[in-house]
Amino acid sequence: MKKVITYGTFDMLHQGHLNILERAKKLGDYLIVGVTSDDFDSRRGKINVQQSMMERVEGVKKTGLADQIIIEEYEGQKIDDVNRLGIDIFAIGSDWKGKFDYLSEFCQVIYLERTKGISSTKIRTKNNHLRLGLVGNAGRIWKVSNEALVINGIDIVGTSGNDGCDKRVGNLENFSFKDLIDKSDAIFIESNVRDRFEQVKYSLEHGKHVLCDLPMAIGKKKQQDLFEIAKKNGCVLMSGIKTAYSTAYYRLLLMVKSGEIGDVLSVETTCTSLSEVSKISSYSENNIWSAMDAWGATALMPIFQILGTDYIDRTIVTKSIDKYFDLFTKMDFIYENAVATAKVGKGIKSEGEMIISGTKGYVYVPAPWWKTEYFEIRYEDLNKKKRFFYELEGEGFKYELVNFLRAINHGRTINYTGDNVLKEVSRIYEEFYNRKDVNLI
Ligand code: C2G
Question: Is residue 170 a contact partner of residue 122, using CB atoms and an 8 Å limit?
């Protein structure tokens, strides 16, 4: 029996895929199709795949051409598959010509002519053409616009800056806020914390999907209002903390939740950055984000995601120069069976790490943990230490934008952060600004 193998993502299965599967099948008696895992695709830079692995496997199954379907999970797996499964022929599209010649040591390698004029990219672009408007400070919007430009199906309409600076972001046109909303289908908001609620509300009320940095609102009630407005208007409202969408962070959360380090007793997060301005007294007038505005929500997120929001007590200590500008803030939470600490700083520097301690071991995420690519699970026995690495492309905006696009296409919000987490973060900001049970040093 002649065994043939071929591989692919097979996203939104189309005629090009069908042709290659048919021709590959004809080369032998038994066809094995390797479908890429979601992880493998994102690691090899194919991040805007629309269908989940299960849906893609289902698509291949339905063709009736595959005698066996396997999952391709890592670089270098092809050699192992060919040997392990006793493959005679490896077949792949001509767009890969030359790339898999190294397999000819183990089996015959055939490049089949690629079908012209059709691709998943084209289908994605046609289906998901989304006009995205960017609202916020030029410095931040610049980063996200760079990453958005490479995503199929997202067209950036322009920006609207509210930081008093009329800096243009790249070649993008700067509009008034209302004009930008008019011209867009969806809005990315990373503006000053106290402007966000009105901006999100206005956008949702005008039927626009919103991806907004946290906090979106000051106060739990206002966050709840935004959820309701989004629902009423059939809009997607998603949290824009990019850490939440990175593969490494998501994996570590799942591992902690599945008991990998036993019961969690403590979560500690630290996020700090020095400021581009050297004089502390002029931070506010230079429109620099304070420690809480820049880092508070990011530092709180893992605490509420892992331990929940039902803490018994909390203490906040802050060193501030005025009501809205803190240099350093330390937040401590006491739960029934655990404790947590978040430290944020602007104009002070510390080690930006995250440590999650449990009864069996602990997770260590080195600085800067909010751009997590690598983490370790450590145990009493040093030899049992496990290391995890998931590459993060760029700053990580791509992942949240791709998820946003997917949520809009599927007509539902994919919840990476949790509504309760969003509401609790909003509450902490309200109490912080109102100096409710906040100790000043
Ligand atoms: N294909 C084709 N004609 C098209 C589009 C795709 O013949 N118009 C072929 C590709 O050449 C490939 C297969 O269909 O052999 C699957 O294509 P993709 O889903 O795009 O997967 P790809 O990224 O090419 O993955 O390990 C993964 C493989 O290396 C290939």
Answer: no
